[in-house]
Amino acid sequence: MSKPVVLNIAKIPAVLQQSLESEFELRTLDSPGDASEISGLVSSAIRGVDLATLDRLPGLKVMSIFGVGLDKVDLAAARRRGIRVGYTPDVLNDCVADLAIGLMIAASRKIPQADGYVRSNRWAETGNVFDLGDRVSGKRMGIAGMGRIGRIIAKRLVGFDAEIRYFSRSEVRECSHERVSTLQELAAWCDYLFIAVSGSAETRHMVDAGVLAALGPQGYLINVARGSVVDEQALVAALENEIIRGAALDVYEVEPLKSSRLTELRNTVLLPHVSSATNETRTAMSNMVVENLKRFYAGERMLAEPA
To answer: Most buried one in 23, 43, 86, 206, CB count within 10 A?
Structure first.
């Protein structure tokens, strides 16, 4: 029996590439062959799948997405055409939450700047004590989005003797922390505002100038969700004018981040969208992408499909 024909349109780890090649007839955009033969598609949350791509694949039956964010995948079009969609939630929750905590500490204690201070030999030349940072323990922590990742961030923060509140569209029954009614109210209360909501039209620019003003001159913004959730121009203005104390970001409105006013600021910590970028998590995500496809072609339910 011939193997199912699967098209990959994203940058993927080598381990996933090898697994796909062993299980399927894998094709790429450089050599797609006869589009009518392609029944499966692999993409990433960053790359997504748009309507134009679906239009070029008349025989498509299943998509397996490497990642958890589906804001760049045209789910409505896929559902209209009866195309099943699998993705990789849960296996990356711990690493994303871990990185959120790392960003909080890095921004508060100015770890990147202190590293540069030593590497540039300024410490040896001057003998000066590096700039003071801010204590993390015992602070008020606000989480926007108490879903899978938000709950693990909260779990990590308990170890910092933090008081925790959250904002979400509805009450999270399994969460013991206090829910507030608006994001602006949460920002006004907390010292650190963690963004852990899904990217969508509803959440686009939900962190706006008003929320940042409420966060205030002692407040930090930590974003490990989607860049679209934050009004980046408003954030730049808030950082430049010291309306907030600092920001630590793993995601941006346009990726990869090019020359930007963000990169010129000293009160930022900027990472290249690496929240799930650990050997363990990327391997688990790769395995799940392949397993979702194998289950589909075997007539079974995939490990994870969006609601």
So the answer is: 43
Active site residues: 226, 255, 273
Residue 184: Cβ within 10 Å count: 19
Neighbours of 36 (CB within 10 A): 11
DSSP E strands in 107-174: the ranges are: 140-144, 163-167
Q: What is the CA radius of gyration of the chain?
A: 21
Within a domain: residue 305? no
Question: In which band, very low, low, confident or very high, does the pLDDT at 9 lie, cut at 50, 70 and 90?
Answer: very high
CB atoms < 10 A from the CB of 218, how many? 12
Instruction: Please check whether residues 156 and 224 belong to one and the same domain.
Output: yes
Distance between CA atoms of 77 and 55, rounded to whole angstroms? 10
Same domain, 52 and 126: no
Q: Is the pLDDT of residue 260 over 90?
A: no
Going by C-alpha positions, the residue among 222, 252, 276, 277 that lies closest to residue 103 is 222
Residue 216 lies in a domain: yes
